[in-house]
Write the structure tokens for this entry.
Amino acid sequence: MNKNIDFQLGLLNFAHLLMHADGVIDERERVAITSIKNEEGISNDVIDQFEKSIVGLKEKEIYDTGIKLLNQCSEEDKLCALVHLYRLAQADDSIHIKEVRFLFYALKMAKIEFEDVVLTANLARNNPIK
């Protein structure tokens, strides 16, 4: 599935923040982000563009960019991104308080209900893409 560039870059901004929130990038997080990139068809060109765009940026700037990009997406894409982020936060079996804050602020700014994210994540887990 190939989503628009705003969706992909917004997702990458938040994934970066979540993966670095606790100061340790766990192997399970690396596997989860690779799975997200593959599932969403994020090309190496988009990843390179993202990596160049965050050089020298502070956390707040990355967050603000992520929100701006995701808010340009459809409600369905926002929900999809937040489900990915929720699953990424759970990947290492320990959710850091900073990850919780990023997720809840993103939910608030995107106007998505947490219950919708959990329900969709559980449905996706029970019905994996084949």
